């Protein structure tokens, strides 16, 4: 769900009432009661910021004054706190067990489940109406034209519309075959083909541009190429890998990822352009990109305590065995296979 007006300008009135503390009596040791139970002085400081604020502009001898009643500027230390207080009010909306609201900064996602499409559409419109009431309270407004919608299951074709609210004259939302949320392109089949294709379009030129920036003459050294590969290229490709790692196991995706990785491998190894991509990864000593993405996803699962270190080690060993199988199965690069028979080494 997207907003039409500037999300950095929510009204101060509702947050000011939510974080306001009750001043304890003189000599009392009771803890002040507030929405977030912060220190009393801190809450008073925030309240002083949200009340009786004015901005003054003087130009050509003329002074204009305007009272400030809204704003959540990016870059300020208080801004994230005010926005958090504002967005947390969405949690008051009553949702059924089949519905959930995901809030991350200004990117809001509404997930609704139902046995039949008409039931889902009715629930979506009801929840959107409640969200519109919340936005009106904070002087914000949603944009139906910028809001994306997609059916995840059921094979529902995108030829339907849903109103943004329960009003008869409410704007309509048109579905799409894929949506982008927090940098990841989602699709109903969960193949993440569109996401991988977008990575290909953006990443191939990126590495070549970085290569040209490293030297005033031509090219760059292999050490610099490896540093750029590990510090710039891989973090961008493996972003949110734990979400779309299953898409890396499709043959079509593996081919696309191999093309993405080819330019960095040529720079790292200084090999001829006719060299096999399968051999380039072995010479460079790096995992093929599809296996590298799966490794990063495995590492994140271990970091989030979804698996223990022993399971991570076994999973990593399985990826290395998979690499060896792919390396041996390719009929290209026989001389490289003779020189490097074992990729684990």
TrEMBL record:
GO biological process terms on file: DNA biosynthetic process
Ranges for domain Reverse transcriptase: 1-186
Cross-referenced PROSITE patterns: RT_POL (PS50878)
Region feature Disordered, mapped onto this chain: 1-32
Pfam families the UniProt entry points to: RVT_1
Listed SUPFAM superfamilies: DNA/RNA polymerases
Highest taxon, organism lineage: Eukaryota
Protein name: Reverse transcriptase domain-containing protein
């Amino acid at each position: 769900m997207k907003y039409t007006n500037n999300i950095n300008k929510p009204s101060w009135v509702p947050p000011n009432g939510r974080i306001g503390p009750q001043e304890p009596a003189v000599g009392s040791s009771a803890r002040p009661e507030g929405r977030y139970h912060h220190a009393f002085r801190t809450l008073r400081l925030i309240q002083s910021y949200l009340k009786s604020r004015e901005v003054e502009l003087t130009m050509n001898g003329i002074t204009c004054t305007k009272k400030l009643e809204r704003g959540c500027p990016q870059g300020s230390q208080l801004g994230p706190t005010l926005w958090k207080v504002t967005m947390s009010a969405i949690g008051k909306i009553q949702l059924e067990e089949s519905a959930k609201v995901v809030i991350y900064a200004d990117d809001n996602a509404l997930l609704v489940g139902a046995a039949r499409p008409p039931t889902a559409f009715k629930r979506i419109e009801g929840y959107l109406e409640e969200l519109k009431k919340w936005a009106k309270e904070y002087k914000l407004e949603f944009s139906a034209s910028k809001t994306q919608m997609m059916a995840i299951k059921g094979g529902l074709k995108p030829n339907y519309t849903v109103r943004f609210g329960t009003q008869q004259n409410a704007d309509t939302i048109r579905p799409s075959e894929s949506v982008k949320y927090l940098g990841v392109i989602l699709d109903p089949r969960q193949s993440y083909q569109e996401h991988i294709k977008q990575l290909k379009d953006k990443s191939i030129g990126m590495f070549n541009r970085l290569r040209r920036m490293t030297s005033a003459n031509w090219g760059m050294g292999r050490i610099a190429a490896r540093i750029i590969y590990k510090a710039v290229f891989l973090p961008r490709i493996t972003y949110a890998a734990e979400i779309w790692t299953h898409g890396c196991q499709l043959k079509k995706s593996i081919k696309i990822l191999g093309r993405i990785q080819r330019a960095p491998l040529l720079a790292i190894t200084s090999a001829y352009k006719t060299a096999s991509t399968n051999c380039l990864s072995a010479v460079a000593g790096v995992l093929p990109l599809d296996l590298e993405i799966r490794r990063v996803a495995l590492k994140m699962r271990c970091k989030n305590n979804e698996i223990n270190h022993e399971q991570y080690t076994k999973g990593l060993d399985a990826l290395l065995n998979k690499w060896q199988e792919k390396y041996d199965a390719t009929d290209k690069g026989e001389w490289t296979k003779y020189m490097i028979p074992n990729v684990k080494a």
